[in-house]
Amino acid sequence: MKFIETIIKRPSMIIVLFSVLALGGLFSYKYLSYELMPEFSVPVVTVTTVYPGAAPSEVESEVSKKIEDAVSGLDNIDDIITKSLENASIVIIQFKPGTDIDNALDETQRKINNMVSDLPDDVETPSLSKISPSDQPIMQLLATSALPNEVFYQQVEDRYLPLLQQIPGVAEITMVGGDKREIRINVDDDKLNYYGLSLLQVTQAINQANLEFPTGKVKSSSEQITLKLAGKFTSLDDIRNLVIVTPPNGSPIRVGDVAQITDGLAETESISRYNGQNGIGLFVKKQSDANAVEISRQMQERLAQIEKENAKDKVKFTIAYDSSVFTLNSVEAVTHDLVLAVVLVAAVMLLFLHSFRNALIVMVSVPASLVSAFLFMYVMGYSLNLMTLLALSLVIGILVDDSIVVLENIQRHLEMGKDRWKATLDGVSEIGFAAVAITLVIVVVFVPITMVNSVIADLLRQFSLTVAFSTLVSLLVSFTLTPWLTSRIARLEHLNPKNPFQAFLLWFERRLDALSHWYSNALAWVLGHKIAFTGILAVIFVVTGWVMGLGIVGQEFVAQGDQGKFLLTMKLDKSASLQQNNLTARRVEEYLRKKPEVAAIFANVGGASTGMASTGQGETNRTELTVELRPVEERPGHLPTEKYMIEVRKELAKQFPGLELKSAIIGMVNSGSSPIEMILSGDNLDELMKTAEDVANRLRAMPGANDIKVSVESGNPEVQVNIDREKMAKLGLNIQTVGASLQNAFAGNDDSKYRDGAEDYDIRIMLDAFDRKNPEDVKNITFFSPVANRPVRLTEFADVRLGSGPSMLERKNRRTSVTVTGNTLGIGSGTLINSIKQDLVAKPLPAGVSLSWGGDAKNQDEGFGSLGLAMMAALVLVYFIMVLLYDSFIYPLVVLFSIPVAVIGALIALALSSSNMSIFAMLGMLMLIGLVVKNAILIVDFANQLKAQGMPYKQAVLKAGEERLRPILMTTIAMVIGMIPIAVASGAGAEWKNSLAWVLIGGLTSSMILTVFLVPMIYYLVDRVAERWGRKKKKVYEEESVPV
After folding, report:
1. Is the pLDDT of residue 613 over 60?
2. What is the distance between the alpha carbons of residues 148 and 859, in angstroms, rounded to a whole number?
3. Is the dihedral of CA 1025, 1031, 1034, 1040 positive or negative?
4. Beta partners for 749?
5. How confident is the model over 490-522, as pLDDT tens digits?
6. Is the domain of 892 the same as that of 999?
7. 904 and 1028 within one domain
8. Where do transmembrane segments lie in this chain (predicted)?
C-alpha cells in the first residue's frame, strides 16, 4: 500500500495531524460543560388557565372545551389531554415526534389569542409553555432569618429573589411557604345586613377609591408640570374612613362600620420545612439550554454573599437539594470506570503481546481517539454528560480493536523472518481490508439512530455520534500511528523463563497454543458433523427462548437510577385543614428523622407538586416529603433506596392508619407520568369511573403493583349553588354579579394594593372567618337588588345544598376519560404491563370503553419501536457495506450468522445480572450488530485470501480459523475486560450503564465462542454449494455446446 509506505517514510504529516488533534482536544475539554443528561426536547405544549373559584365542571365547560376546540386544528397533533381542576384548566397538547416544538408553540399561541375573548371575564389569560426535563427544579433551598416572618418574606420576594434570578440560566424561582404581609378587610355579614349593603358594594367602593391617575400637564411659556391625582391609601385610617354609601337623610356608612381592618398576614396556603425548621422554600428551575452545574456554583456564591451582607439578621439559605452534586458524582464515577477500563485493556495487551513496547503501540490509539473526541464534542456543542462519558467508557475496548488486528498481523510477518519495514508493509496490506470493514460496520450501526425522529433518538444521539467518531479516529490511528511506531520500535520478544513475569507469559502462551490446537481439531469435527453441530445450536436457542419465556428477564423503559432520595406523598381526608395536615406531617417527619438511614427531609405541606406533571395547584390535605438517605454503605443493612422506601411505607401504614401514602424513587430522568398509566375513554363518566375502579382493583391484586390510583375521584365535598335564572333576572341580578360576590366572600378580592414606602402589599377583602365556616353561611350571602332596591339573600333565587363531586375531570382527544395510574415495586414496569394486557384479554373492557396507554407503556412502545427500526436498518446497512467490500452478496450473509448467537449471550447476561430489558439494553443489542460481525469478518476475509492463493476450501477454512483465533481472542477479551468496570459499577448513574455493559459482555462472549465454529461451517457449506452449482452449470453448458 503506497499510503502506508508514505506514512512510514514521512511521518511528519501524521505527527502534525495528531498534535493538532491533541491540542484541539485538550483545549476543547477545558470548555466542555458538565450536565447529567444531554439536552433534548419533548414535543409537548401545555396551556394552563386559571379560573378563580370555579368547580371542575365549570372549568371544563367554560374553559377546557373551548381551548380544545381552538387547538384541535393544529398540525401534527398526536393527543390532546385535558385536566379540569378546581380553579384551573390544563390542556396538554402532545405533538408527533420530530415536530418543531418552537413553531408548534407559536401556532398554539396564535390559536389561543384568537379565542381568548370567548372565555369568561374573570378567567386569567392562558399561559403556554413547553414541557422539558428542565422543568424539574435543579435546586431546593430553605431561607430562614431572625427577622419577623412577614418582614423576611417581603425581603426575600423583593430583594433576594431578583438577585438570584439575575444569575445567567435561571428560568424561574418559585416561593413556597412563609408568612406574607397583607392588609385584611374582614367584613362582618351581620353588619352588612344591618346597613342593607352587599359585599360587592364594599369591594367596589374600596377598589374604585384606591387609584392614582396621571391627568396631564400644566403648561406655561416657561415650564410644564405633570398633574397627578393621588388617590392611593396612605394609612389604614384612609380605608376605615372611606365612605361606601350615604343614605338619603342619613349618616355616611364607612368601611370601618362594616369591617375590621388589620395589618396582618395572608392566610397560610403552604408550609416549607427542612429537617424540622420552618422557612421559605425556594425551587430553582433552569432554562432549557443552561448548565445546571454552573448555575449551582453561581447560586452558592450569590447566597453566600447575601448571607454575609445580612449577617446581623441571621439570614441563612440551606441547600436541601442540588442536582449538580449527583451530576458531578456521575461524571466522576464514569471517569473512574474509564480509567480502570484503560488499565485493564492495557493489561490484556501486555498479556497477549508479551512486551511493554508492543502494548504501548496499541494503547496509543486510546488517548489519541479520546482526546480527538473532546474536540468533536466541542464542535458539535455537546457537554460532558452521562451519555457522552458512557460512550467514551464503552469505546475503550473498541478503540484498540483495529490496532490489535494490524499489530498482530505485523507480528506474524515478523515471525516469518521479515524486517520491521517489510513486515509492517505486508502486514498492514494483508489485513487492511478487514480492518476497514470491521470499523465501518461498527460505525454504520449508529447511523439509523441519528435519523430517527423520537425522544429516545434525541437522548441517544450524542452517545451514538461520539462512539462513531472515536471509532473512526481509531481506524485512522491503526493506519498511521500504529504502522509508523511498529516500523520504528516493534520487535519479536524472546521470553526468558528465569524472569517470573516472562515465565508467566510463557505459561500463558503455552495455554494459548493448546487452545488453538484444540480449536483446530474441534473445528475439523464441526465441519465433518455439520448436522450434529446445528442440532446443538438449535437446542441452545430453544433452551434460551424457554428460559426467557419464564419471565426471568423483565422489561422497563429505563432504570430510574438511585440518587439516594425518594418522594413520599401523604394525603389526609379531603375535608382536612392545612393545620391538621401540618400536624400529621410533623409527626411523620419526626418518626422518619429518628431513622439512622435518613439524612434529611424537605417538607412541602399544602403546596403544589414540584414535578413535571404538576398541575400547579396545591391541596390543603396533601404533603410532599423529599427524603434524602445516607450513602448505602452507611445504612444499616445496606438496603438500596427502593427497598428501604418499601419498608418505610409499611411501617408508616401501621403507625399512621388512615393516612394515604404514595412513594416514588427520585431518579435521573422523571418523565412526569407514572410508570403505569391506563387511559379509559368513553361517553359516560359514571360508567368510566365504575370500569376504572374495577381495573384498579384487578391491578392491586397483581404482584409488583403499587400506588394504584384512579384520577377522577368522587366524594370531594362541595357546596352546590343551583341558580334559578328567572328569579335572578327579576331581581335585576346576573351570573357575573352573583359569581363575583361569592368569589369575594370566600376566596377574597386582592385587586387593590396598599403602598408602604417603596413596597406594595395586597389588600384582601372577604367575609370575616366567622361568617364563612360552614355551608349554611353560603345561604346568608346578600346581594343588592336594583329592582327591589334592597339586599336579597342567595336563597331567594338559588338552591344551596351540600353535595359531592369529582376533584378533577379528564378528557382525551375531546372525549371524557379516567386514568388509572400506578407504580411498580420489585419488578420492571414492562413486566407488569404485559401481565395487565394478558388480564385484559381474559376479561375485556365493557363495550363503549376504549383503552389507550401512557407512561412507560407508551414510552416503551415508542422507544423499543425506534430502536427496533434502527436495528433492522443497521442490519441492512452492515450487509450493504460488506457487499461493497467483498463484491459478493453471499459472503456478507455468512458474516451475519454471527449476530443471532450473540443474542443468546446477551439474554443470559441480563438474566444472571438480574437486569431488565430496557432502552439501554436495546442499545447494547444494536451495538452488538457492529461488534460481533468483526470476528466473522476476520475469518471470512482471511479464508478468501487463502483461496485466492490456491488453497482448497476446507483447508482454507481451517487455516483461517486457526490463524485468526488469536486476534479474535485479543479483541474480544479486550472489549469484554474494558466493559467489566461499567457492568459492575455501583456509583451515581450506574443503573443505566450496567444493563448496557452486561448485554455487550454476554453477547461478545457467546459470539466469540460460537462464531468461530458457526461462521466457518456456514462458509464451508456456501463454498461447497457454490462449487457444485458451478460444476452443474458448467456441465449443462458443455452439453448444450455439443453439436448434434
Report:
1. no
2. 49
3. negative
4. 765
5. 776 676 777 888 888 888 888 888 998 899 899
6. yes
7. yes
8. 12-32, 333-353, 360-380, 431-451, 463-485, 531-553, 867-886, 893-913, 919-944, 965-984, 996-1022
